[in-house]
Amino acid sequence: MMVASWIDAISQLNRVDKDFVLVTLLATKGSTPRNAGTKMVITQDDFFDSIGGGNLEYQVIALARKILADSTVHQHIGYFPLGPSLGQCCGGSTAVLFEKFTGSYVYVMLFGAGHVGKALVSILSELPCKVHWVDSRENEFPVYIPSNVTLINIDQPEAAVSEMPVNSYYLIMTHNHQLDFLICEAVLKKSDFSYLGLIGSKNKWRRFQQRLKYKNFSEEVISRIQCPIGLCEVPGKRPMEVAVSIAGEIINHYQKKQLEQKSVSWQELKHLYRESGQNSLSETNSN
After folding, report:
1. Beta strands in the chain, from DSSP E residues, in sequence order
2. Cα 86-87-88 angle, rounded to 5 deg
3. What would the DSSP string read from start to end of 175-187?
4. What is the C-alpha separation between 175 and 189, in angstroms, rounded?
5. Closest of 242, 234, 158 to residue 199, by C-alpha
6. Stated pTM of the model
7. pLDDT of residue 85
8. Per-residue confidence (pLDDT) for residue 269, from 0 to 100
9. How far apart are alpha carbons 287 and 282 in whole angstroms?
């Protein structure tokens, strides 16, 4: 990616829906390589612009990538004294704000183009989702496909699991129980999923649990599968009723994850203002 600045990087990363951390030198004290307000952008495999180079920048990039990998952290303030511990002789210090921006879409892989699958896609197409719809039966797919849905017609649907990004949602509802099991295996082995839902009865779920234990999956891993799938508060057996129940569970899951993200606390901000010589926000605003 060729970009001229952190601003250009943000624009291009948003266009391709890629996660990144925006780093800002929030406050500086004494001698520092760059002034407060300097920014750079960091992804898991690249970075754009600079906050001054050296070991400070190296440590900041490393911390930013840890934040990208932690689904619970949204914002963080790090404090860096620019002395021997960082291998820099500036003698000053800086507070660095890390802000994580994740892709705006929930990535969903839906296995099965039966009645429930068709009804569910019609709902997911109206949500902030990127849907990969997988089935070995090409004729089962409808003529009209929403713009945020990608069809995957493949003889071995379980092989498609490897194509999905980290923290994807997997919904298994094929026409074949053995195929459902193979897909469950593939997702569990990949292990980086956010949600794994399996349609079926309690009897089906008991059989799957026994088979997965036989395959040496731990109880902790198996417990990550949601089966039966959907919200119990939304009853009904019609395809659209089942689809509404499943969609409700997905919405509840990704909204809850957003609420659980950690942001900078008010105590941290007060500490930062004290360190920078400001006693309160009101004094800052009155100057």
Report:
1. 20-29, 39-42, 47-48, 75-81, 93-101, 106-111, 129-135, 149-153, 169-172, 195-198, 225-226
2. 90
3. S-HHHHHHHHHHH
4. 22
5. 242
6. 0.68
7. 52
8. 63
9. 9
DSSP 16: T
Residue with tokens 């934040």: 67
For 243, other C-beta atoms within 10 Å of its C-beta total 24
150, amino acid identity = T
Predicted confidence (pLDDT) per residue in 275-286, tens digit: 555 433 333 333
Give the separation between CA 83 and CA 120, rounded to whole angstroms. Answer: 57
Tokens 């992804």 — which residue? Answer: 43
* Residue 282: per-residue pLDDT: 34
Phi, psi of 76, deg, nearest 5: -160, 145
Task: Please state the length of the chain.
Answer: 287
Task: Please report how the helices 177-190 and 202-214 are oriented relative to each other, as an axis angle in degrees rounded to 10.
Answer: 50
Tokens 């699958």, located at residue: 117
Q: What is the pLDDT of residue 83?
A: 56
- Whose tokens are 């990144």? That residue is 20
User: What does DSSP say about strands 169-172 and 106-111: parallel, antiparallel, or unpaired?
Assistant: parallel
Predicted pLDDT of residue 199: 94
Q: Give the contacts of 235 (CB within 8 A, at least 6 positions apart).
A: 241, 245
Token pair belonging to 198: 């399996």
Q: Read off the tokens for 53.
A: 């180079």
For position 137, what pLDDT does the model report? Answer: 94
Q: How far is CA 117 from the centre of its chain?
A: 24
Residues of the chain with pLDDT under 50: 86, 278-287
Per DSSP, the residues of 149-172 read EEEEE-SSGGGGGGGSPTT-EEEE
Q: Distance between terminal CA atoms of the chain?
A: 42
Residue pointed to by tokens 């040496």: 216
Q: Residue 84 is encoded by which pair of tokens?
A: 């021997």
